[in-house]
Amino acid sequence: MSAEPDHRARRPKLAVWKFASCDGCQLTLLDCEDELLGIAENMEISYFLEASSAPGPGPYDLSLVEGSVTTQHDAERIQHIRNVSSRLVTIGACATAGGVQALRNYADVAEFLAVVYARPDYIETLATSTPISAHVPVDFELRGCPIDRGQLIEVIVAFLAGRTPNVPAHSVCFECKRRGNVCVTVAHGTPCLGPVTHSGCGALCPTYGRGCYGCFGPSNSTNFGAFIPLLRRDGMNTLDVVRVLRTFNTAAPEFDAASRKELRQ
Amino acid sequence: MTDHTSKVLRVGALARVEGEGALYLCLQDGEVAEARLAIYEPPRFFEAFLRGRSYREPPDITARVCGICPVAYQMSACRAIEDACGVVVGGQLAALRRLLYCGEWIESQTLHIYLLHAPDFLGADSATDLARTHHADVERGLRLKQAGNAIVELLGGRAIHPINARLGGFHRLPTPSELRPLAEQLRRARDDAAATARWVADFDFPDAGCDHDLLALAEPGTYAIESGTPTVMISPSGAGLPADTNRALPTRTFDVCEFDDHVVETQVPHSTALHSRLDGHRHLTGTLARYAISGRWLSPIALEAAQDAGLGNPREGAVCRNPFRSIVVRAIEVLYAVDEALRIIDAYEPTPRACVDVPPRAGTGYGATEAPRGMLYHRYSMRDDGTITDASIVPPTAQNQGAIEHDLLRLVQERLGSGQPTDAELAFLCEKAIRNHDPCISCSAHFLNLTVLREGRSASIRDGGRDSQR
């Protein structure tokens, strides 16, 4: 019993931070029902306001950052968080690729404000929603809208073991083949973003009979020149193609470039 | 100097809530001049960027408003768009939607009970802290929450932002053999939910009441979740009664398409969330409102548990207006949802098609469902090709903000009347009062900042790593 406090004192400190987001990625940590108490044994959950009203002071060994930067205050706050964090890992599409709120990057934000608020002058916001890596160096980016629970545990376990997380960067098609799914595009002509989308979800949408909508963002090798004609063959027009690329990972460079090119043609 | 003319208390980062908020208290001559719940979650502009999207997209896109209650967004979006298209989804598909929603109720309400709210009553800072003294209880909570997630994962594909819900129904239906192991898990969850109700019923609750109109959906014959008619129960003061009156008061209803005429949103300078008033009055939606309006339709097992937990008999008009006891009512709702999920699974018969057709047409559609935190209203207008031209989303927390501020004002005033509380005591009292209502601040547009002005200077409590200047 006497040895336990010393062991606890040496546990690495975990912090969870939030920027503009839906809270779903940090909730993924609370959704690790079988592992949560085990994680708390091995790490001191030091700063996690969604789960604890006793935030501990930094510096922190591992910071998980959810959400995108959409205000000047947040652009300053992320600098502070980087300064007090040994390792900084972004969790989710907002922190990694600006999130669905990056749709403002293509629009007039003053007009967006006027649609939602009668008094836009009360609201502080930047004209853009940007990923964390646009502001500070990031040690690892975990994709997904939302992130996958198994991949989050892999990131935490890898951190505790001092190794790189084993999170493959190939496309959803690999996961579909591994699950033995029939290809929804080949068999049914359903438009599917699987060929250009980062793996991680376990090919969920095709498993449920629908086309992938790209919520994990671009895979490490994408060939839009070959891919977009396939979408057109299956009935999508230019605006459909632009819309499907401009959803939850709209500010990911590959999706952004492909959608801009599509609009130019 | 004990007599102070004016002070402002500011809580720097509200914990154990979902979303970002700050609390500002202004005290003058021993009276609370103002209590403001400021939501500073940065705006994300969903209503703006939904314009120009396809009518098929809001169920997937609006799920991203909130990771805690994505199913609520999906179901309200589906109802509103199907309403615009003149489609009503019935039969087994409607039953499966209710099953999916029961899953979200179980996991979300259990998250609030065990991870966010129970630590307040047991002197802990977090569930992991609570696990040191109440390990078996926390394990039970996690197991129960897991059962809710299991429903959403099976029917929806994953617990957060499910992918299987669509206009007209689902992409793929579960098979009876897939539902069988789920039913086994839910039978154990029913015992855990009953044990939860007994556990929280023994907590120590302060005497309190709330003098707000209550708004919830009503669907006679069933506890309204995914459909029903907006129903208002008048406030005690509206009936000339004290705020802690625990019996049902008269109700009125309105059609969901008249929601905008009754619930009017206004903007306040201190918040990115819009405030709303119901027919000019402050109102509360969520667990206490639902229980007051639908309590008589609880299943026998939940009705018995409610009476054993000291809530009285809702069939004889018992309601609960003590916000601190919302944790008990929430536990009853979890038990009901588990029981209801089992009933739906037992009655499930696969249908030939996973969805009905929803052809687009020009028009406007309205939809409201009961998110775990309260009524969630969506309205969409679209062209005949299904392109959305206008979208409106009224989440529960924005509706509840005025009622929460009123509760804060009353509680702080009462506390000031019984001595000289420190800033830390006031901050903790306010945080507890806010957590009673399980506000989901992400929905509104996470943390609370509390500021108190004392003798002309302001004190800021718990800012963590964030800058206190907003």
TrEMBL record, chain A:
It comes from the Bacteria. Keywords: Oxidoreductase. It holds the Pfam family Oxidored_q6. The keyword Oxidoreductase applies. Residues 22-158 form the NADH:ubiquinone oxidoreductase-like 20kDa subunit domain. GO terms for molecular function: iron-sulfur cluster binding; oxidoreductase activity. This is Coenzyme F420-reducing hydrogenase gamma subunit.
Automatic annotation (TrEMBL), chain B:
One of its GO terms (molecular function) is nickel cation binding. Mg(2+) binds at E47, I393, H446. Keywords: Iron, Magnesium, Metal-binding, Nickel, Oxidoreductase. Transmembrane segments: none annotated. It holds the Pfam family NiFeSe_Hases. InterPro entries: Ni-dep_hyd_lsu, NiFe-Hase_large. The keyword Nucleus does not apply. Ni(2+) binds at C66, C69, C440. Its cofactor is Ni(2+); Fe cation. Belongs to the [NiFe]/[NiFeSe] hydrogenase large subunit family. This is Coenzyme F420-reducing hydrogenase alpha subunit. It comes from Saccharopolyspora phatthalungensis.
